[in-house]
Amino acid sequence: MTGKGTIPLGQTRDHEHDPYADEGAGLDREDLLRLLTGMVRIRRFEERCVELYAGELIRGFLHVYIGEEAVAVGVMDALTETDAVVATYREHGHALARGVDAGAVMAEMFGKVEGTSRGRGGSMHIFDVSRRFYGGNAIVGGGLPLAVGLALADRMTGRDGVTACFFGEGAVAEGEFHESMNLAALWRLPVLFCCENNLYAMGTALSRSESQPDIALKASAYEVPAWPVDGMDVRAVHAAARHAVDAVRSGGGPHLLELRTYRFRAHSMYDPERYRDTAEVRTWMERDPIDALVGVLRAAHELDDAELGALQAEVDAEVEAAVAYAQAGHDEPVEELTRFVHDDTSTATRR
Ligand SMILES: Cc1ncc(C[n+]2csc(CCOP(=O)(O)OP(=O)(O)O)c2C)c(N)n1
Ligand SMILES: [Mg+2]
Fold first, then answer.
1. Pocket test for ligand 1, best of 63, 71, 140 (most atoms within 8 A of CB)
2. Would you say the CB of residue 201 lies under 6 angstroms from ligand 1?
3. How far is the CA of 26 from the centre of ligand 1 (A)?
4. Each residue of 94-126: pLDDT tens digit?
5. What's phi and psi for 55, nearest 5 deg?
6. What is the structure's pLDDT at 25?
7. 2, pLDDT greater than 50
8. Contacts of 137 (CB under 8 A, 6+ apart)
9. Contacts of 29 (CB under 8 A, 6+ apart)
10. Residue 277 pLDDT greater than 80, yes or no
11. pTM for this one?
12. What is the mean pLDDT of residues 31-52?
């Protein structure tokens, strides 16, 4: 872990070391099954989303998280109910891991009133205040200042909350990343920045767009403790998140985890994926976070075929119930379309 001020500016360090990686091995069977179920739920939910998209039941944008499940599941498990979460447009997994109702998430994708945002936001705008899940944000880097504001509000209102802010490595090119690091550090706000480094921002590789691709080092420039974590190993993510959340909660100021991961699918449903090698994709898929955890449990004789089958069947039933709920949902009536539209000059609001 990079302590305050330990990195001379301009000096690149060896960031291949996660000091807490081995601690993940200490999780018991119950913990591991909970984490596994969380990842399988996201995987299955999104595989269904892709099918439903092909059938035009889901329309508009759709960015799936398949391959990156260990990140959201591992971090979210280290949070409490009073904590807050901000995510990106690739956020179905974060919403599910945060406990947002799967039916309401699916209904949002279908554009139904029963959705988390009344069907007005769709895939990129899942939102649930009751879970302190503050989106869903289509703007790259847009969630960072929101997280800083939420953390400031929590501090000012005396709430013991940590705000976990998920963003892609593409966001480090935005001014909002730097402004948010600076302000959060300056005011020692309780934010856990979770950078999901999947190496690509749409078709642009990090190494082709950043003169300094070491994200933890960038955070260190703002005196934000940061370290890299194997984002394909849910146990490592969980251990790192636990340490970071504890440090943030106990007044240690913002921390950043650089979670090294990979998306197995295209950026969105409209991406021919010409920018990356199939061999590279295959290599990362061999590190599938779900298969890896199943392997750990099997090696310890803590999961047999029947138990794994039952877990998958339970998740399948949950996802199908979410799809049925969304399908039975309603379109917003036309007369309600101007509800929540605020514009003093508009005749719409006067009606
Ligand atoms: C401010 C802004 N600029 C550009 C875009 C278009 N855009 C959408 S996703 C994306 C790539 C972001 O990549 P990254 O932050 O690494 O997240 P990932 O998709 O890899 O999860 C871009 C450039 C946008 N949505 N917002
Ligand atoms: Mg990315």
1. 140
2. yes
3. 36
4. 999 999 999 999 999 999 999 999 999 999 999
5. -85, 5
6. 76
7. no
8. 86, 87, 88, 89, 124, 125, 143, 146
9. 297, 300, 302
10. yes
11. 0.94
12. 98
Decide whether any atom of ligand 1 lies within 6 Å of the 267 Cβ: yes
What's the gap in Å between 238 CA and the centre of ligand 1? 26
Q: Give pLDDT tens digits for 123-141.
A: 999 999 999 999 999 999 9
What integer pLDDT is reported at residue 347 of this predicted model?
58
* Residue-range domain boundaries for the chain: 30-268+275-350
- Beta carbon of 90 within 6 Å of any ligand 1 atom: yes
Residue 198 beta carbon below 6 angstroms from any ligand 1 atom: yes
CATH number of 30-268+275-350: 3.40.50.970
Nearest-5° Cα angle at 137, 136 to 139: 165
Q: Which atom of ligand 1 is nearest to the CA of 68?
A: 21
Angle between helices 289-299 and 234-247 (to 10 degrees): 100
CA distance from start to end of the chain: 58
Q: What is the pLDDT of residues 194-225, one digit of tens each?
A: 999 999 999 999 999 999 999 999 999 999 99
Residue type, 106: M
Residues constituting the chain? 351
Name the residue with tokens 């109910």. 81
- When pLDDT is averaged across residues 49-59 and rounded to a whole number, the result is 97
Ligand 1 pocket, 276 CB below 6 A? no
